[in-house]
Amino acid sequence: MKPRDRFLKALNRQQPDRVPLWELIINEPVIRSLLPGGTYADFVEWAGLDGICVSEDQRFEKTGEYFVDEWGIKWKPIDAGVNYPVKGPIKEPGDLGKYSPPDPDADWRLKTLEAYVDRFKGERAIVLLSHETFEFSHYLVGGLRNLFLHYHKNKDFIHRLSETISQYKCRVIERAVRMGADVVLTGDDYADRKGPFMSGKQFEEFILPYLKMVVQTAKRLGVPFIKHTDGNLWLIIDMIVDSGIDALDPIEPIAGMDIGEVKRKYGGRIAVIGNVDCSYVLPLGSEKEVEDAVKETIAKASPGGGHVMASSNSIHPAVKPSNYMLMIELTKKYGTYPIDEKLIEEYAGRKYISKYIV
Fold first, then answer.
1. Domains and CATH numbers, the chain
2. The model scores a pTM over 0.85
3. Do 187 and 54 contact (CB within 8 A), yes or no?
4. What are the pLDDT digits (tens) for 224-261?
């Protein structure tokens, strides 16, 4: 079975020949260690991953120690090529009337996607990494604290801001799918390990309508939709699933999200993606600990299909490269369908993450 078909079949809650492998992000230090001189696209092919992620292209201007993007958001570079937003262009609600978002139809906007389509179309699933409105809203207004103040004081402003972001994002998604993206994913994080950043009522009012907009855009274009969010989602997971998503990633175990429980409750409606721990197991764990995590994840999530193997967030710079490669090898070894009944019996009732929860 071709990697693309394997990935898409799992997203459709069906059983392919084996559990697909995929990652939202693989940071450059890990790639350089395992494939010196190789690009991310080279690595995906070399490692035998079933899907590849691609974001829209953006342009930045260097201003002192900062970068300013097309939205006017100021970013500070930190370790391993990762940038952190430090200032937004919209200070007051009145600023929105004078604000213009970037051009979603810029001819260079999807050049990286175009290259991936030329290289991988029909062979590996091409996943467009986009956003809804939550993260870009707090980037634009200068942080979560400012955003939550606006939730209380300036509700109409937040909805107008969200409409502006949504119109842009949905247009880019539409262009990307027509160019050849197989899957749409949005990466706004709603929660940390303790729970959502906002109340359930705030999620329903300020975030859910715009999640539904991007989901409906993907549905209209006939491609599956993956929702990525870290953290403990139990307070809002029903609303997330009800939005019409096709899959949830990464179902973070260290945050109390057991992938087996999620599949039992929602596996008839969504596929599950994840969730080998990348906080402790992949960076610091022994080979035995990696093996136990992979086997347990397969035992809980893979039977019957509808599961894509991935880490609990990303393959970040602290991940031990050899542990990540072991995760890939073990998934290919134990993730072949039908899943071994003895493995399911031995591992489905375990909870490897419990030793790392303080």
1. 3-56+91-356 (3.20.20.210)
2. yes
3. no
4. 999 999 999 999 999 999 999 999 999 999 999 999 99
